[in-house]
Every structure is written in structure tokens, then in C-alpha cells.
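User: Fold this; C-alpha cells only.

Assistant: Input:
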Amino acid sequence: MLDCAIIGGGPAGLTAGLYTTRGGLENVTMFEKGMPGGQITSSSEIENYPGVTGEITGMDLMMPWPEQCQKFGLKHEMIEVTRVSKSGDLFTIHKGDGSTQDAHSVIIGTGSSPRRAGFAGEDEFFGKGVSTCATCDGFFYKGKEVAVVGGGDTALEEALYLAKICSKVYLIHRREEFRSAPNTVERIKKTENIELVLNSVPDEVYGDNMGVTGIRVKNNAGELRDIEVPGVFTFVGNDVNNQTLIQEDGSFLCDMNDQGQVLVNLSMKTSVEGLYATGDMRVEAPKQVVSAAGDGAVAALQVISYVDELLN
């Protein structure tokens, strides 16, 4: 029997693991089907994490976190959790191998996944020239021209990363202005090998059996332009990974909004006693590492009190 089951091994889950175990809970397991660290590990550069100066990648930032947590007794089980259910005061963790485990409390932080932009050819050429990870795939386009689709922080940061290794980056954005930090926008405008393709949306990515050969974009006037590139990177937001909360009858374990985000209060409490949601999957999440870590700490402190009250 677990005092607390933590679902997800990103910044929220790892911080929750640190605080629950250091706070006195003895049986805490973090379930993460891959290596801990979360989506931030694919980021090429971190500039805004407090106390971290100089150039550092997301992988570098997250590397020490698991070791710190495990020092206080956090267990990591590398397996997928398919569903979390509750009967009475007990939660049941349903694992991908068909086994189950009971827990007094659950902290869930399964995050979000990059959203597809939805233009023609995107699915057909995904992994064959279309990517959502510049750090993962940028190297393949060293010295070549690429296109980036998006106008938020991630899109601009990844465009800057690609500009260091590619001969040219076409930054395609549907508006005139960017939804990004002013200093990031300024860096984009000062980078000579980034060409802004504004007020335009992707119409189609095309190619051959070898992969992508170009992208066709349409501007606000309906005019089409072909941009010949072997690589297209899309950064247009994220979808919430809430599948673990779906019950056998298709309903959700706890209350959600119409975007699939978990409704929580300031203590990360959901509508179900003993269930706490953290990080990118909860409502109004800032989608920053530092705030996800804060969510994990808040939820952990709540869990310590909840389990103590439940068992004593």
C-alpha cells in the first residue's frame, strides 16, 4: 500500500516526490514510463529558471533532480499508468502490464504533448521532415534551410536554436505580432538568417518518398508562396495528457474544463478527496518549469496532511 502514488516524472512529479518523502511519507512511488525530467528536457536553452545563469539545456537542468529525490526514499517505477480509479478511501493505480497497486493519495502531473498544426501533409511527413523538437532533429538540417511554424515562446526559442546550426530559418506566424517575451522577439529580429513570414499560415507540406521538400504558405490576402526546405518544425501549443483520468465508462475521475484541463484550487486539490493535479495538465497552468515545481511542492504538503489525517 502506497502512502502516495505520483503519476508523471516531470518537474511537478519530481518535486512532489522530494517533498513527500522528505516530509515523512515512507511509501511513495513515482510512475514514469520514460526517463524522468519531462518535456523540458528537449528544450535547447533555459534562460529563466531562478538561480541558473549562463547557457544550460533542459536536459542539463533536470539531470540532478531524480538523484536528489531518490536520496530521500522516492521510488521510481518505469511503467505506464493507464488509469487511476477510486473506491472508498483508496485509489487504484492500473498499470500497462495489467497489474494494479493501491494508494491512499495520488498526485498526477502527466503534462501535455505538442499539438499538431493541422495542415495538409503534416501527418504524412511527420518524422520524415516534420518535427516538433528542434533539439532532437535540428542536427539533421545542419547548414540547410528550415521552416518554423508558430508565434509563442517555444517557437521563437527553437527558431533561435535552429538559426545557430541552419543556413536559414523561415519563421511562419499567422499574425503580425508575436505572443512571446519582448527580449526573445528582439533577438529574433536581430538574427540575420531568420526571415519572418508573417500574417501567413501553412497550406501544405509536400515532398517525395525521401521526405519533405517544401512548405506552401498562404497569407491573409490568399496568396500562396512555396518555400523549399527539407525540414519543418511546428510549435503551436499543447494538448493535455489526461487519459489516465478517464474511467471505464468514459467519464473523468474528477472535474475538468472544456479544454480537458483538471480543475483545482490553490492547494492543487481536485474535486476528488486525496487527488491532486499539478503542472501543465491543471487549469490556468503557466506552463513553466518553476511553476510546475511549485505545484508539486504545494500538492505534496497537502498530501502529507491528508494521509496523516486519514491514518491517524
